[in-house]
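haha ok so turns out i had the wrong file open the whole time. this is the CORRECT one, sorry everyone. sequence first:
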Amino acid sequence: MLAGLERLGRDPAPLLADAGIDLDNPTLRIEVDRYAALYNRIIAELGDEGFGLFSQPVRPGSFEFLCRSMLGATTLADALERAGRFLHLVLPDLNITIHRRGDMAQLRIVETRPLGPRDDPARVFAFEWLLRLLHSVACWLVGRGLALEAVRFPYARPAHADDYALVYTEHSSFEAPDLEASLRANLLDLPIRRDEAALAVFLDGAPGKISMLYRRDRELVFRVRDLLRDALPAALTVTEAAASLHMSTRTLHRRLEEEGSGFRLIKDAFRRDIALSRLTKTRQRIADIAADLGYADTSAFYRAFVAWTGLAPDRFRRQVQMHTGEDAAPFPPDTATH
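then structure:
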């Protein structure tokens, strides 16, 4: 998101400070409210809702009129076609089309002008951003979640690809010629359920808030995360979660799949976020972190953490300490075997 600023020779430090974001420690995860604030500040600074990533600026107000153009449609298919036509006017570097193929439909985003080197972070973000934007608006327009069955991205697997399972779908793949997002074709027949009054509320804080914070399609994901948090240090099972939500295990699996997620994915991401936070911000013993997260033994936590980050938790913590130049006493040794 900062790539456009850098291309234009603008210093992002003041904008980061205004949004309360510190990039000196890359292990810290940015809160979505601060991300949205930075998103809107960059747009205001550049006068460009496209972050300076494209051959011409996407003038402020374009997002609002994109929504208005889609709001007048009768079905989601019509709304997405309108979005493609509108974006052709304000964002000619990318072409958006929607096609039905049997019981599936494909939303394609294709470069009409190269955005940069294939794996350039600015190009990667441009595709991520536009897909998030279109998907969020589409979910809002029909008033329900729209599960993406699969997404093929036109670049190599990025370092943050593990997050794609929660942002897009666990069926995300890379090295495709163009971006192609697949969804059930019958979703295109859903009626548009929003009106002008609802749009006024939706646009509050837009477009930054919309692209990251409109997660109507993730309500059950958040409810499951809350249950996992409340159950700690016990390791909540999917059967227990389903009972708490007054549904069968099968229904829970199905509804999470419709939201592009799954119980194991949510549980792993929840544990990972807490583990990263505690290893970074506290001096708690690794064995105690493992116990607090519901692991039966420390070795199981070590294996999980290596799968998440490629590093053992004690090595990760040492790297954080070295990066921050911390002069305090060393972290307490962990004598548990792993």
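Residues 213-217, 327-331 have pLDDT under 50 and may be disordered.
again sry for the mixup
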